[in-house]
Design a protein that fits this description.
253 residues; 7% strand; 2 domains; mainly alpha; two-stranded parallel sheet; Alpha-Beta Plaits; 14 helices
């Protein structure tokens, strides 16, 4: 059973590693800068649509994107080989909210100064950056922003510990955290972790295998396994030999 479960994690890691490899092709649609540029031009662009999509998807899937689709996750989990230190979420999680609020404020000010959104262009700036006749200025701008983002992710993961960037600086996570909080007030079906504490032997394998450094054992014995930093990767369930934890679809608040 554990071998079958580990296969799921191998597939998951393979997917996010591939997402990181192709990140140069998808960066513009996840860029924290290009959404600001679009706002300043009154354009609803690809990154705007992607971030809105992450919020909507979190109403059912929580932060599954962080576990199965995020390029930054692929880089950081690959770096576990070099740095596997446990992070203390409560000490650094607040930082990303400060970054997010300032960033959202800049977007709002930009779009107000532009007179509001006037059109939708999913490929805003993408055509300029990847066109055959793209100018040096466009290419340099793209390379600079891409380098800043990837180097920041790597440095934070290597200095802070496991998925340090996710905890302290990710601009995408707050959209999904807010969506999940809204879902938890509603009774609809969603992907959730459930636990049977009576079967738990407190071996802490779930804690050791959590890529987000959460005290999963404490969550097993809590009334609910909900945690804002849980990405529903299923690592805790897949590493438990007693099948204490299950990743399942269920309804309820």
């Amino acid at each position: 059973m554990l071998r079958k479960k580990s296969t799921r994690q191998n597939i998951r890691r393979g997917i996010i590693l591939m997402m990181f490899i192709i990140f140069p092709l998808t960066y513009n649609f996840l860029s924290p800068y290009i959404i600001i540029h679009g706002a300043s031009q009154g354009v609803v662009n690809g990154s705007f649509i992607m971030f809105a999509g992450l919020f909507v998807s979190s109403l059912v899937f929580g932060r599954v994107w962080c576990a199965w689709g995020c390029p930054a996750a692929g880089m950081q989990e690959a770096l576990f080989l070099a740095q596997n230190k446990t992070v203390h979420p409560r000490k650094i999680d607040w930082i990303k909210w400060v970054i997010w609020v300032v960033w959202i404020g800049i977007i709002v000010v930009s779009v107000v100064m532009a007179g509001g959104y006037r059109k939708v262009d999913f490929f805003h700036l993408v055509r300029d950056d990847f066109a055959a006749n793209a100018g040096a200025e466009s290419l340099i701008r793209w390379l600079m922003m891409y380098s800043i983002v990837t180097v920041t992710i790597a440095v934070m993961a290597l200095t802070m510990g496991k998925r340090g960037f996710c905890h302290a600086a990710c601009w995408m996570a707050p959209f999904m955290i807010l969506g999940r909080k809204l879902r938890n007030r509603m009774p609809w079906w969603s992907l959730r972790l459930k636990a049977d504490p009576s079967a738990c032997t407190d071996c802490n394998s779930c804690v050791r295998n959590c890529p987000m450094s959460l005290d999963v054992n404490a969550l097993v014995h809590a009334p609910s396994m909900e945690h804002s930093e849980c990405i529903l990767c299923g690592n805790c369930a897949d590493s438990c030999s007693k099948n204490v934890i299950q990743l399942e679809w269920s309804a309820g608040k």
